[in-house]
Amino acid sequence: MCSIYGWQIGLAAVTAAMALVFGLFVSIMIWDQLCAIFENTPGIDALKQIKGVQKGKYESLCSVFGTPFSWRWFFPLEPELQVIRDLEEELMQLRMVYVRSALPSREFNSPGPASPASEPAVPEFDLSDRAKSA
Length: 134
Known about the structure:
Helix content is 60%, strand content 0%. The chain is an all-alpha fold.
């Protein structure tokens, strides 16, 4: 017959308590991420009280995962070519905003092209190698 000792019951109770705390932590993190996805507002923007463009829940999930619902949602795979192109386009738009915000306002009002030396150094984003391999 199997005998159970008091210390084994104690270890089982500690293990159960740790499992409950871990489960609570994971549940809170999932809830936080889903709220951020559905509101289309990252955590830092939420702290700054900046709201994202409202989209449907399914549309927001598709935006996060990069594709409509499929088996690809459950595996960390290489993104599809269209997702990479969309990212490149978004980065180029951000780069233009960065360049415009970094330049002094007088350069926008001056006639003629600005000299290359007066433009700030802007990081280059080139994902073309990755897009070709996909």
